[in-house]
Request: fold
Amino acid sequence: MKDIGSGKIVFYAPDGTKIETKGEIVIRNNRVVVTEIIYFNGQPNGARESNFPLERTVVYWDAEVYEQIGFE
Reply:
């Protein structure tokens, strides 16, 4: 299973709300870590890291370059 790359996650909270976020994703043990780049005046200025439990999270991976051209 893929455990690192770019993509989008959807987190389903226990109260029924849904959180969607995009960024660099790393799956560690039972956690999903998403790092979002923060831009200020069009320039990267920092990063925000969020942790979500794996059992309540759906990960949608972006295709990597080598997957788009047929090498896996």
Remarks:
- The radius of gyration is 14 Å.
- The mean pLDDT is 89.
